[in-house]
Amino acid sequence: MSSEKLQKVLARAGLGSRRAMEAAIEAGRVEVNQRTARLGDRVEPSDRIRVDGRPLSQRRTAPAQRRVIAYHKPTGELVSRHDPEGRRCVFDRLPRLEQGRWIAIGRLDINTSGLLLLTTDGELASRLMHPRYRLLRDYAVRIFGAVEPSTIDRLMSGIELEDGRAAFESIQALESREAANQWFRVRLREGRNRLVRRLWESQGVRVSRLMRVQYGPIELPAGLREGQTDWLSAGQVRHLAGLVGLERDETARSPGRGRPAGGGPRRRPAPRHRG
């Protein structure tokens, strides 16, 4: 196999974007075969790489087909590989890979359910999360009680939060048979921590349920129950990569949909509306 640029290998391992990895190399944080790496270095699969003193396994740095899955995350799960408190983690339930590892594209907090995209390509994950590309994020939100039109206007105009101004790009009321609650579909193009909840709560509104239903062009697949995964087609993966300016690497698709881990009934998802 031919050598590759060091920053590309580090990005593929999920450590950050290529630009961020270039900065890490320039800062002297990367070693190759016990030598401080320099920008422009190329590496072979047999080379031993360390970042901040920690070795990278060949399983993480080896080239792999670019794959993406959609996972229907239940509430109560962490988007984490391990939890010291022993809570359930998303990565415990994902399809096993012969090569590479799954990298989450963005996060959902423990109390938020819905669509979580994961990929084997760290550079793709980094770009899809980057504010530069302004990929949409749609959520179904259940609000306890009535919402005044003036509240909707303020949330669309913009609210000053502790980490800067934010606003919803769109807010659409959804049909609901729950007398004490109302469902909305809201759209953002940034991924600040708990931003949907914080925007509503800034207006004294209580969010009783939150579910992500779309990320970029990918919607939560119809019929995908909590705890299940669905492999994106090669065409969908190429489209995602093209949106963020990546070369169209070889992709792969699984023959079927993942089954939920464990037994028992699954709760029905919140109302969905195409937008």
From TrEMBL:
<dbReference type="InterPro" id="IPR002942">
    <property type="entry name" value="S4_RNA-bd"/>
</dbReference>
<keyword id="KW-0694">RNA-binding</keyword>
<feature type="compositionally biased region" description="Basic residues">
    <location>
        <begin position="265"/>
        <end position="275"/>
    </location>
</feature>
<dbReference type="InterPro" id="IPR050343">
    <property type="entry name" value="RsuA_PseudoU_synthase"/>
</dbReference>
<feature type="domain" description="RNA-binding S4">
    <location>
        <begin position="4"/>
        <end position="60"/>
    </location>
</feature>
<dbReference type="InterPro" id="IPR042092">
    <property type="entry name" value="PsdUridine_s_RsuA/RluB/E/F_cat"/>
</dbReference>
<keyword id="KW-0413">Isomerase</keyword>
<protein>
    <recommendedName>
        <fullName>Pseudouridine synthase</fullName>
        <ecNumber>5.4.99.-</ecNumber>
    </recommendedName>
</protein>
<dbReference type="InterPro" id="IPR000748">
    <property type="entry name" value="PsdUridine_synth_RsuA/RluB/E/F"/>
</dbReference>
<dbReference type="Pfam" id="PF00849">
    <property type="entry name" value="PseudoU_synth_2"/>
</dbReference>
<dbReference type="InterPro" id="IPR036986">
    <property type="entry name" value="S4_RNA-bd_sf"/>
</dbReference>
<dbReference type="InterPro" id="IPR018496">
    <property type="entry name" value="PsdUridine_synth_RsuA/RluB_CS"/>
</dbReference>
<comment type="similarity">
    <text>Belongs to the pseudouridine synthase RsuA family.</text>
</comment>
<dbReference type="Pfam" id="PF01479">
    <property type="entry name" value="S4"/>
</dbReference>
<dbReference type="InterPro" id="IPR020103">
    <property type="entry name" value="PsdUridine_synth_cat_dom_sf"/>
</dbReference>
<dbReference type="InterPro" id="IPR020094">
    <property type="entry name" value="TruA/RsuA/RluB/E/F_N"/>
</dbReference>
<dbReference type="InterPro" id="IPR006145">
    <property type="entry name" value="PsdUridine_synth_RsuA/RluA"/>
</dbReference>
<feature type="region of interest" description="Disordered">
    <location>
        <begin position="245"/>
        <end position="275"/>
    </location>
</feature>
<comment type="function">
    <text>Responsible for synthesis of pseudouridine from uracil-2605 in 23S ribosomal RNA.</text>
</comment>
